[in-house]
Design goal:
There is one protein chain. This protein has one domain. Helix content is about 75%, strand content about 0%. The chain contains five helices and no strands. It has helices spanning about 5-20, 25-40, 45-55, 60-85, 85-90. α1 (about 5-20) packs antiparallel against α2 and α2 packs antiparallel against α4. The protein starts with a helix and ends in a 6-residue tail after the last helix.
Amino acid sequence: MEGMGLMLLTAPLFTAVGVQAGIDPVWFGVFVVMLIEIGMLTPPVGMNLFTVKAMCPEIALSTIVHGSLPFTAANLVAVGLISLWPALALFPLRWI
């Protein structure tokens, strides 16, 4: 399942539950998008990995996975930071 379909199927249910629990809906949206992108970069689902493999069949899938690890690590660090300090995800909204 690709990211947009995953969001369209699950976001209404989980957003309603999150709002009832007192979670900011904008922060929750940022959080969900970041987690879905991590899911698209990690095996076994890793749809983005298989897309790159289809574009470059001469490169081994293990090489592509190793190349995506720094991006996955950076996303995990970002998810950790916005989990500890939710205002980081909402910072640009203060300028509007």
